[in-house]
């Protein structure tokens, strides 16, 4: 009877270790994905500029044209998007190393620190998405009440790159959300 | 010797129950605070409008003036801020009832659901903070590159109310962050 219980305990332990390994590799894969997503999102926004030749305002006779360049750092919301992605990318790479180092040892304080930092990345990236999304939408549709004219009708490529960077940042933020959920489920499973 | 071990077990159990109760009341207090913060943040933004008499643009001779009103729903970022706060307020009230109902029973699936929804509120509120913050900043400083003029020099009271609402939303979002951290620490304590 005793050996039966002991054997059951071993099976359960093995199952738990196998489960932890599975969660661990899933976590590592998500962190690698986040490094790539935030790196590409930062690069896409950082390389975003477009030059167009447009008629002068107010229009003159004879018509004269000027060359106008849109650059990513002209709008602080896009600077914030790049900075947030760089911070998240560096942290994701760092946390990947930390979670590898923690795998064998199970240091719960380090595990907690990683969850809290993941959580802060969720906050950081979603605020950057909100900021860049709001300014991007304003550039796309404009607003007659405050007399802010749309600019995406002129700088189409520039705006498309903003959309691409925001979409990549959304994916990275959702991946961080998933990492926190994974950690919460893992801890809950252990506590039961 | 056996009675000593049993007594020690009881003490530990009592300590755990007392700790859970302490965490539970702290959680309830934070949820009540969140209901109040998001309610006031939504109301402050929802009641935000200001009418000013300003000279016409372009200026005419003799000078003519028009009455211009700034309303919160003219800018979609502020509509998003109100909607996000209302959603967070309703959820916080609902989760308060749920966490009360869950206190005696310890249903881990319900506990997990609450943590995940708290996490989604963090994402929702921080994206709204980013959006309203970026548009608010643009209204405050303007941007010469895209020719979006600042409007806070005219509608000062309107902008102050936006700042108040954003600050209250930041506090509510940080409170949700704290709730997730509290839950993670609680689960981790139980798992050790």
Automatic annotation (TrEMBL), chains A, B:
TM ranges: 29-47, 72-101, 113-142, 162-187
Keyword Transmembrane helix: yes
Family: Belongs to the Casparian strip membrane proteins (CASP) family.
Highest classification ranks of the organism: Eukaryota, Viridiplantae, Streptophyta, Embryophyta, Tracheophyta
Name the UniProt record assigns to this protein: CASP-like protein
Cross-referenced Pfam families: CASP_dom
Taxonomic superkingdom: Eukaryota
Location of this chain's protein in the cell: Cell membrane
InterPro entries: CASP/CASPL, CASP_dom, CASPL
Subunit structure and binding partners: Homodimer and heterodimers.
Segments forming domain Casparian strip membrane protein: 22-175
Keywords: Cell membrane, Membrane, Transmembrane, Transmembrane helix
Membrane topology: Multi-pass membrane protein
Listed GO CC annotations: plasma membrane
Organism encoding this protein: Rubus argutus (Southern blackberry)
